[in-house]
Amino acid sequence: MVYCPKCGAMNEDQASFCQRCGGQIVLPQPPPSEPAKRAPAVWNQTPFDRTFRGGGPLLRSFLGLIFVLLVMEILDALSGESAFAGEFSSFLGDTLLPFFLVLLLAFFFGYYTRKFPRETSMVSPLVTAIIVTFLLWVVSRAFEIWGETGPDDFMSAMGEMVASVLYIIFLLIVLLGYIGVIMKAGRFTNPVPPANVPPVPPAPPQAPYAPGKRMGRSNRDKIIFGVCGGMAEFLDTDPFLVRVLWVVGTLLTSGVLILAYLILAIIMPKNP
Question: How far apart are CA 46 and CA 44, in angstroms?
Fold first, then answer.
């Protein structure tokens, strides 16, 4: 019910004119609603993130660089007994800046992924492809140096093969990653309310935000380590299709995806 501002008579809710005096009734308009600002996610942030905040990834990058320098010192100490140790130490010294930049990218992206998982999902496949491709490039250079200092033709051939398919691995990771992003796009879009709708009573309090899925090795559907099964659970697709794509990619890359599979089996957490 609404009251007439002129005579004070009570009228129906949607009345435009007073039934007693005929005066116009102006209904109060609700203030325009502003989109609610979503707070950063805290459910998956580590105590290290909450303690050091944005400086944590930078600290971790310097610690990783110090670890690389320690590896170089150990290799230099072994260079008198092994030519491979001296050559690989020189290679690490020449690539310290790329190592540091990749460490910065990995740790900062990991921090912001845990803090803003929805906003960072669109660039996650690209960043993952860059990091994995860089690591495989380092492995290929290690094979080549081993083959040159051995000499070992097999290791040299392995290094050249890995280096020749790096762009295929990069494109494959980007392709599979963005397929997953597109399949989950509906989870990250907010419905647009229709225009000219009368105000409705406030909705009851909603349940707290539940964390989304994270890619991990499957415990329910695995043949070797559960990598393909975990990717299928993350993408909500058939694990047989993922395994077929993985086998085809392995054949196209002359077996290089086997190494990528082992790396994923090491770095991917195990699903509960």
Answer: 6
Each residue's pLDDT tens digit, 68-82 = 999 999 988 888 888
Read off the pTM.
0.55
**Cis ω for the linkage preceding 208 (within 30 of 0):** no
Low-confidence ranges of the chain (pLDDT < 50): 188-189, 209
HEC states along 205-249?
CCCCCCCCCCCCECCCCCCCCCHHHHHHHHHCCCHHHHHHHHHHH
Q: In 3-state terms, what secondary structure has residue 88? A: helix
Residue 170 to residues 128, 146, 165, 255, Cα–Cα distance (Å) = 9, 24, 9, 15
Helices (H) and strands (E) in the chain, counts: 11, 2
pLDDT in tens, 3-29: 777 777 777 777 777 777 777 777 666
On the 0-12 / 13-18 / 19+ scale of CB atoms within 10 A, 230 is buried
Q: Which amino acid is at 7?
A: C
DSSP-assigned letter for residue 17 = B
Q: Is 232 left (phi over 0), alpha (psi -120 to 50) or beta?
A: alpha
Residue 46, both tokens? 């580590």
User: Residue 56's closest CA among 110, 19, 98, 102?
Assistant: 110
271 close to 216: Cβ distance less than 8 angstroms: yes
Q: Two tokens at 109? A: 């992206």
Q: How far apart are CA 102 and CA 105, in angstroms?
A: 5
Q: What is the rounded distance in angstroms from the CA atom of residue 50 to the CA atom of residue 114?
A: 11
Tokens at residue 107, please? 């740790």
